[in-house]
Amino acid sequence: MTLDQALAFGLMGVTIALFLWGRFAYDAVALASLLIGVLLGIIPLDKAFSGFSDDVVLIVAAALVISRAVATSGAVEVIMRPVTPHLRSTAIQVPVLAGATMLIAMFTKNVGALAIMMPVALQLARRTGTPPAALLMPMAFAAMTGGVVTLVGTAPNIIMSRVREELTGAPFRMFDYTPVGLGICAVALLFLAVGWRLLPGGRRGAASMESAFTIGQYTVEARVPEEGGEVPMTVAELEALSEGEVQVSAVVPPSAGPRSASRPAASRLPSPDQRLAPNDVVMLRGEAAELERLVARAGLVLPGDGPTADDPTTDEDDMQVLEGVVTSESPLVGRSPAAMTLRSRHGVTLLAVSRRGEQHIQDRLSQLRLRAGDVVLLRGLAATMPDNLGELRVLPLAERGTALGKGRRSWLPLAVLVGAMALVAAGVLNIVLAFFAAVVALFALRIMSTREAYDAVDWPVVVLLAALIPVSGAIQHTGGTDLLAGWLTGAVQGLPAIAALGVTMLLAMAVTPFLNNAATVLVMGPIAASLAGKLGLNPDPFLMAVALGAASDFLTPIGHQCNTLVMGPGGYRFGDYARLGLPLSILVVLAGVPLIAYVWPVVPH
Predict the structure, then answer these.
(1) What is the pTM of this model?
(2) Which one of 157, 206, 422, 479 is separated from 355 by 20 to 30 angstroms, measured CA to CA?
(3) Using CA atoms, how far apart are residues 139 and 422, in angstroms rounded to an integer?
(4) What is the pLDDT of residues 352-406, one digit of tens each?
(5) Where does the RCK C-terminal domain start and stop, copy by copy (predicted)?
(6) Separation of alpha carbons 545 and 550, rounded Å
(7) Residue 175: CB atoms within 10 Å
(8) What is the dihedral of CA 185, 187, 193, 197, to 10 degrees?
(9) Dihedral pair phi/psi, residue 301, rounded to 5°
(10) Bridge partners of 352?
């Protein structure tokens, strides 16, 4: 072993030890390792920051942005809506939700697919009384297995494609992973459909900050748009769109004027058979998230949609929605938004009000006399919102990610994703350019703002990848991978080729929970290829085995983002993951090794 090899191994060993310790953030450890590698001379200065321009970093970031756009579009909720009323038992809910998550993960980043489906699962669990713990872990595991089907589904596949390109000159293509991945998905889904019973009962999700807000239900005022003439929808049909979560407390025809809603609430309750007409104003009462869904599904218009009165050129991306409490010193107390000329004078629009002790707010929001203690939802320019809240003496609440008033639901994000995948599959564009073009299309179509895109990117993961690429490359460039492969060759010498393939997958699977799937691929990929070369075998199945093993982290909550994402909402403990994950890991090895050997022959022709 040379001095450079010893330094490279020592640096990687310390890096892994710090990852295992968990005292410092992964990205900070990776950056420190990069700096030390440059100072030791094992990473050339001209290669030190090459990871930040690597294609894999751009692909991962773009996949996260596209996944967020699809998640917020509501398209998946619309697709799932006809199915969810029939999911009454846990035995049906688990395979359907896991299968849907698995399918989405084949075409988006797996953590993005899970984020898309989690609200559907939590809403279903609340309505049917199913423990979220019975649904969320199977969905997380389904997202990880679904991700192995295509190049973009999981980071190990993306990184392994780059590793193969460096080693052989040709990367893995979009659907090279598909034959093996589909087989793994079939095995995993069959197991999860019954294996969820291995999870302990009685787990309760950890309380989030949102649960600390006991605001109650909001009342919003929405208008039926003019387009399309008579709306073929009754009050009962409108409420049915929310599956009983939102109530229509009043319908005000346009000819009645804004003050017509001042009659007692009991006399204004509409008949369920009353048909809505264009420009009718409907008063809706419910939770903010449910109101947002109903407004989007029914195509209703909230007050304040469009540019502000004082600046017609206002862009939607410049707007912000905030919750606040009307203080006793507020000039709003005892006055209505109309009397205060709230929008024209202060540049904010009142979207919704929550008032303690009142089931039905009797006035239209523009004529409602506000009280101290009212919780209001205000929409205005982000740049001036702090000053406006100060002038109005409205105390802002901690941001809860309320979508009401800023949701832009559309099928376009899904269409953009499908278009990008089609261009890659047809060979028109490579994966980097296709996903970059998809993100630009989201901006051009005004589906997502640049600020929302930056929020969607998991920057610690991006920095981790960018820093670890040259660090892991140091082992390969100093000859360390050949040295390790030689030792591993001695360990598997005399074993059948398929057994060597199985050992490689097991090694990747064992390292991933305690390291990181990206780091595992970067370190293990070159070692596996070198091992195959020393054994006289085809390197492709060994690279596939490493990618599949690194993507199959079912044993701990810390090795993969999907596992971490469901830990709090599901109320899981560290040991719960092995209950379901260990048998699934065994099944993946038993099914994955022969599948890889069949699709990618181990012995070269």
Answers:
(1) 0.67
(2) 206
(3) 26
(4) 888 876 656 767 888 888 888 888 888 888 788 888 888 888 888 756 555 565 5
(5) 309-395
(6) 8
(7) 14
(8) -120
(9) -115, 125
(10) 220, 377
